[in-house]
Amino acid sequence: MNVLFASSELYPLAKTGGLADVLGALPAALQARGHSVSCALPFYREVMESEPELLDPDLALEIPMGDRVLAGRVYQTETPNGVTVFLIRRDEFFDRSGLYGNELGDYQDIAERFIFFSKAVIALAANISPAIDILHAHDWQTGLVPIFAKAAAAQFKTVFTIHNLGYQGSFWGVDFKLCNLPDRYFAPDGGLEHYGHLNCLKAGIVHADQVTTVSPTYAREIQTPAHGRGLDVTLREHAGKLTGILNGIDQSLWCPASDPLIKENYTAETLAEGKAACRRHLLKRADWPKDTTDLIVGVVSRLDSQKGIDLIRDAWPEILRMPVRLVILASGDPDLEAWLTSAMERHPDRLFAEIGFSEKLAHRIQAGCDAVLMPSRYEPCGLSQLYAQRYGTLPIVHGTGGLADTVADWNDEAREGTGFVFRPCNAPALLGALRRAVELAQDRPAWEIAAREGMARDFSWEASAMATEEVYARA
């Protein structure tokens, strides 16, 4: 098939989160399976500053935006893994310091920016030869692509992926005039209107030929009032075209046998020795005794309500009574940052925290910790638990979304599993899972069974690509 991806992020050109990683990997995995794949991305300042090698296909676009017609231009580059990327340029919208906003918040014209981009994607698609079969749009920033494709009577089919239902692209109804669509679309059954607002994510769900999200459990959860963020009714109405497909990870980048960022490389066969060396290296970073027998638990996360880091704060007095030390790499909520800093100052022998992000430390936490903790209230897919299992590190997770789909709860009787799953999402349940981990750590043969079982699991993009192909076929 000939497939065009449309997204607001794509690694390594433009990234704020996991969306970019998906777009940096899934198109290449599909291309490796014999499909013709290209991507459309705004030509941000961040992309310009990376100085990519550009081709100029001499393609100018004229995009109606309300009562104006705006010009855009298309440039072409290529990712390191050989996927063509079309960069849609309009400096008024994209030559800015951030992808979505700055320290003051989202840009005031963010709706206009991505309505323009979505329309430009349709205009670009009309100029690709041979004609595309599938246009695969991602998250709210391209949620209007399917309806613009219908309005243009496009011959290709559309697939829309929800990466996080928490971000919907909901704007004042006055922005609807920028869509240049008949008024019937801005009605409860028209797909765009949601309680008086223009909702881009809803538009994608309603008007795409197929809809996917990033794990099977999350696909079920978002159809419930508890997790549907106001769109559960819409999702239930369109459940017949909704599929949950787990994200993959780059198993060459996250590979303990070849990772250049960790102290000592290791495989499942050399697990004990390799993990011990990486553990000592991490303990030295935290200025802790290299011979401590405490359970070393890592956290690599954003600090916000979704990630449940406040549950660690609530459980902290009890954690201090356990043989557990935490290594945390995180940033976000100022109150949680302040708590981490204060807790580390008061208990430097039990908590090491670095505010911010470091790729090197993230890898060293995965390799050097005994376990990683992810108490997310909801998690569409999650990545840390996948990385952890690759490194023989046992995840401790709340049983939601992709965490429930990818971590097998340890079973003492069967002596099988890859981590510890707790429910409900509260501090007592989290503490219960930590105690189970502490107990299992006393049985080193059993612990290594769990670690090796995790290392043997396949989280490659190959599996995701195959499942995505099936969705394209249905479309």
Question: What features would you describe in this structure?
Answer:
The structure is a single chain. This protein is an alpha/beta fold and 475 residues long. It folds into two domains: 2-248 and 462-474, Glycogen Phosphorylase B (Rossmann fold), CATH 3.40.50; 271-455, Glycogen Phosphorylase B (Rossmann fold, 3-Layer(aba) Sandwich). Helices cover 36% and strands 22% of the residues. A nine-stranded mixed beta sheet has the order 3-4-5-2-1-8-9-13-14, with helices on both faces. Strands 17-16-15-18-19-20 form a six-stranded parallel beta sheet, sandwiched between helices. Strands 10-12-11 form a three-stranded antiparallel beta sheet. Strand 8 (134-138), helix 5 (145-151) and strand 9 (157-162) form a beta-alpha-beta unit. Helix 1 (18-32) packs across helix 17. The mean pLDDT is 96.
What is the CATH class designation of the largest domain? Alpha Beta
Mean pLDDT across all amino acids: 96
List how many beta strands DSSP finds. Answer: 20
Gyration radius (Cα, Å) is: 23 Å
CATH topology of the largest domain: Rossmann fold
Tell me, briefly, the overall form: elongated
Low-confidence stretches: none
Count of helical regions = 17
Quickly count the domains.
2
User: What is the correct CATH architecture of the largest domain?
Assistant: 3-Layer(aba) Sandwich
Strand fraction: 15-25%
What does the main sheet amount to?
A: 9 strands, mixed
Helix amount: 25-40%
Helix-strand makeup class: alpha/beta
